[in-house]
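Hi R.,

Here's the chain you asked about this morning:
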Amino acid sequence: MLEGHLVRCRPLTCPPPLAVDPSPPFCPLPIARPGKPYNANIFFTATGGYSPYSWSQTGLPEGMDIETATGGVFGTAAVEGMYPFVVTVTDSIGKSAGRICSILVREVPDSRYFADRMKENPSRFIRDLAVADGPLQAGRHEFTRDGSNERGEAVGSGVYFARTTVDGKSAHRKMTLVS
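And the predicted structure, written out as tokens:
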């Protein structure tokens, strides 16, 4: 179909209005490091309208862009700063929709030590959940726990407290364990 042509459809066959899908929980985008390729594996998605879609952006830092066919963010930012940008999707009949997002570009040191400790109450230690002694790149990391305490005994269901430490900085959170 060509842009400017009227598209007629029956109410049950019309697609919903075109939109940049708001469900991905990554706005703002994960931090980009200056001079390092951005490999956060971020792809915007669209809903509604008529596929195929074409993607564009305005405002990403110099050296970064969005892949027109997939909505994937890629590139290497050079200058630190906070960059608000607009991502736009255009469908096959020329309708467009956009979303405002942002990305922070800054140097983040590699983490040299990560520890996650589980406690039954703020003072009773249960076990280390995960420890990594080697460098970890900035970003999301997953560790799996086997459900036991330091002695190898099963830990029952309940409310526990976890402390995550990265490079000497700690954060605490409550968690519910269901066995």
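The chain has two domains: 19-105, 114-177.

Let me know if you need anything else.
M.
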